[in-house]
Write a structure and sequence with these properties.
387 residues; mainly alpha; transmembrane helix; OpgC domain-containing protein; membrane; transmembrane; UCP028704_OpgC
Length: 387
Amino acid sequence: MRSLIRLDRDLRVDIVRGFALWAIFVNHTPGNVMGAVTPRNYTLSDATEAFVLLAGYAAGLAYGIVMDRQGWFFAASRVLGRVFTLYVAHIFLLVVFTAQVGFSAERLDAAAYLDELHLDPFGADPYRALLEALLLRYQPSFLNILPLYIVVLAMFALAMPLMRRPWLMLGLSAALWLVAREMGLSLPSWRGEDWFFNPLAWQLLFFIGCALGYRPPGGRPIVLPWRRWAGALCWLLLAAGAALTVLIHFQWDFTLARLPAFAPWLAAIDKASLHPLRLATMLALTYLIAHLVSRDAAWLRSDPGLLLALLGQQALPVFCAGIALSFLGRLALEASDAWWMQAVVNLLGAAALVALAVLTAWYGAEKRAPRRPSTPGLPAGAPADRG
């Protein structure tokens, strides 16, 4: 397995992304006890913020090199090719997820699944629902992260040259985020609701990642040096966020009863349009990890670290599989919530994600490997006679 992991990359990025993908699987499985150790329970940000920020980092690093070597047009065409891949993956996941939820709802006589996961339009108006899903104007629950990624990556294809002027890019991105939040701007949806993740707001986190990932030729990338006071502020923000998270998710009745004037402000810490506290929390975590975890730390290359890195390096198939498996895990936990079922769901779920990552990495390595000569009797590695 180690041979399938690209060790020349910054493993901190891959490990954090792998952990985020595992957390997405766990958090989308209701009743999973492992949800207690995921970041949403002790920070104001969660796996989604990490996923979007690191997607931007990877885009800035990879496509920035292509742009500087082969020009913006070619790089933009590569980005749009990735957009198409994400779109196909989203539609495939939509079909699989809808089929398994619909089949389960029929066999178990549990129509509540369709209502809860916003799949009821497929029963009332299936043809229109399918059309709107293809247009990304209809997004059932759990199927709203890839549409966000598709839109911000398409925006990146147009804005890519601005990476050479990162502060201008970040200023324009922050202005769009602020306008979207203050004016309630979002993309239209079929049934009148706003997108669960507003791309006009979440693009800021993506473009921050782009700015951090881009390596200008002959220039200096954006580096925020370590300052003790900045680190102290980050820890203070995380501690305050942990306290607010407890009040919001675990002590809401206490908050309403004892802090009635404070409750509306807490309730306004929204995820849809990337509340400033959620954004600040993700940036604080990024700053601390970047400076307190050495890029050459030995534990990054330990077996657990490499398992997470492998998941992070095969993010798209692992994400899709995690969403599909999460509903199967839900069905299992609803059948039995015993400790052994919790163990089966989590162990088999994690094993399936790792197995898929291994298979995808192996297939990618085989595609990149030099082709062997097809001439009969020619020794492996010997040049074929082209005369």
